[in-house]
Amino acid sequence: PHFSFESHEKSLENKVILITGAGDGIGKQAALSYASSGAILILLGKTVEKLERVYDEIIRRGGKQPSIVPLDLAGATLSHYEGMADTISGEYGRLDGILFNASILGNLCPFGQIKESEYDNVMQVNLKSQFLITKALLPLLNEAESASVVFTSSSVGTKGRAFWSTYCVSKFATEGMMQTLADEYKNTHLRFNSINPGPTKTDMRAKAFPAEDPSLLKTPLQIMPTYIYLMDDVSRGINGQLLDCQPS
Ligand code: NDP
Known about the structure:
Elements: E1 16-20, H1 25-36, E2 40-45, H2 48-60, E3 67-70, H3 78-92, E4 97-99, H4 116-143, E5 147-152, H5 165-184, E6 190-196, H6 203-208, H7 224-231, E7 242-244
Parallel strand pairs: 1-2, 1-4, 2-3, 4-5, 5-6, 6-7
């Protein structure tokens, strides 16, 4: 489904929201936009310098002080996420939202050439980390008055495409995880949905389509209405849906 949504200022006031991959691309923009709407961000990402830049930018724009969690999803285990849950619990006592945004493209190649180590790495970063983070943070989501978990899909999350290899598999499985959780928690104060950003001007897109003219692409800022909508209380009742930022 598609919709047009104008967020009102401070619509995410004091919502505590974790974003994975908050240092760059769409995740960085989501952090800035959520902070502008009054949210308190927990910025998780691999490169600490990028997270610090986002932190500084949020403060410079008058946003609430965020937290930084430098973590490589490729190596993190359940105990890392349980430690993070303890910290969030001590600091805020609840979690109002998670945006699962971080992912890697891996190598685009013929199926027979996918390396096993590459498959494992992409599935760890794109898929298993989401399972572990959700498992560790469910008790904190339950403490929120209303909590929204948003996964990031792709056009290859619902239709297979030649050479898109493990990335495609990980996005289909992400949809499965979202739908399973949505069904399990239906009629509760937790909701689970996913977003397909559509072609968006980021480093990942440039890597996937090196010959494309990036000036023709939507910017991360332009696709933010869908991201804000799913965190905003106005989307209570929306559960198990895949929202497309750029429907054709
Ligand atoms: P980018 O590559 O620009 O940003 C990805 C972010 O994820 C970076 O901040 C990166 O951190 C972080 N990340 C990657 N690997 C890890 C890791 N191992 N541990 C922690 N953090 C990690 O991607 P986009 O902004 O383009 O993509 C965001 C989401 O949108 C992804 O899920 C992608 O699949 C999806 N998407 C994007 C589309 C597009 O056109 N851009 C289209 C369809 C879907 P660092 O920089 O420190 O490595």
